[in-house]
Write a structure and sequence with these properties.
Layout (H helix, E strand, L loop, with lengths): L2 E5 L5 E5 L11 H26 L5 H12 L4 E3 H7 L4 H13 L3 E5 L7 E5 L1 H21 L6 H20 L11
Antiparallel strand pairs: 1-2, 3-5, 4-5
Length: 181
């Protein structure tokens, strides 16, 4: 196979094929630094948000599910649509919903338009609890993210992530179908 030897960001020799879809575009040193900073910070943020919510009795995935339900018409949504919205598998949403239902915060009912679908509804107890959880969550988001950045940096972060979201919306093959995982 013809190709040229290149050194990747770690200084390791790697084969870069000439042309074709299988050409590897190694990260530059600058790209590697940015990628690792994003990866580390996004994981640290998720851990911090989850830890702060756990202190008030709920996990981040549970909070996200309840929060999205609270914003849906009549605080109800088809579970498959909810899974797609929060980018979790249907199986994971089912397990999360079961935990929340045991606490009395949501109710599952069969979808009226077909026998296979399930509607998830936020209960009054769930809405009341969510109001309390939201205070902890917003405080956590401010402490760990918003207050760390300047307003301009936070706006740029939002704009950058919107570009990524738009790319996924325009080309669903980029993400795969997490709702069937």
């Amino acid at each position: 196979m013809s190709g040229t030897t290149v050194t990747d960001a770690r200084g390791v020799d790697a084969m870069q094929r000439d042309g074709g879809d299988d050409a590897v575009r190694w990260l530059t040193d600058e790209e590697q630094v940015s990628w690792r900073a994003y990866l580390r910070a996004s994981r640290e943020l998720a851990v911090a948000f989850d830890r702060d919510l756990q202190a008030v009795g709920i996990s981040l995935p549970e909070y996200e599910l309840m929060s999205m339900l609270s914003e849906a018409p009549d605080a109800r949504m088809r579970m498959s649509a909810l899974a797609a919205l929060i980018v979790q598998s249907r199986s994971r949403v089912t397990h999360t919903a079961a935990r929340l239902e045991r606490r009395g915060w949501v109710r599952r009912t069969p979808a009226p338009d077909d026998g296979r679908g399930v509607i998830l509804r936020l209960t009054e107890d769930g809405r009341s609890s969510l109001d309390d959880f939201a205070v902890a969550h917003i405080s956590s988001v401010r402490r760990h993210l918003i207050d760390v950045l300047t307003p301009e940096q936070f706006a740029a972060l939002g704009a950058t992530m919107q570009v990524v979201r738009d790319a996924y919306a325009a080309d669903p093959t980029m993400r795969g179908d997490v709702t069937n995982v």
